[in-house]
Design brief:
Radius of gyration: 22 Å
Number of strands: 2
Length: about 150
């Protein structure tokens, strides 16, 4: 009886430790009860970023890949890991190299650049849809000028 009780306590202790520890020693973060690796989260953010830049919805992309939109959501949050073959299909659909999904991965001592938010992605998509090169160059120049003024006043 006592050995069974010890076994039950160790299970409970492990469960409590697991539930309270937000990160594992391997760098994985807990998401609900599932461990989520930072690389999977990064890849998911990049999938979302390029999907938004292409003006596609989760439903559009999921249908073309033969997935449910919920599965694509899980990929984009990093909750589910994207297989190599599925990543290749996603890259082809979104017209990027598979390596794109790993660009900007944080490395020790190297600052990480921010992922595009939805509003910025839509603005970039709108800018890239302007076919007149002269107008597009003028808008880009204006954006750079405004950004330069803002950084000087900060």
């Amino acid at each position: 009886m006592q050995s069974k009780m010890l076994h039950d306590c160790s299970s409970l202790t492990s469960w409590v430790s697991y539930r309270l520890m937000p990160f594992s020693l391997s760098g994985k973060q807990l998401c609900g009860e599932k461990m989520v690796h930072p690389v999977d989260v990064h890849v998911g953010k990049k999938i979302r970023e390029v999907r938004l830049l292409r003006g596609m919805t989760q439903v559009n992309v999921a249908e073309k890949l033969g997935l449910s939109f919920q599965q694509l959501q899980k990929y984009e949050t990093g909750y589910n890991r994207v297989s190599a073959s599925k990543m290749f299909e996603i890259a082809q659909l979104l017209d990027v190299e598979p390596a794109y999904f790993f660009e900007g991965l944080p490395r020790a001592g190297v600052p990480q650049r921010e992922a595009l938010d939805e509003r910025t992605a839509k603005a970039a998509q709108a800018l890239s849809s302007i076919t007149d090169e002269k107008i597009r160059a003028q808008i880009q120049s204006m954006i750079h000028e405004l950004a330069g003024r803002q950084s000087l006043s900060a």
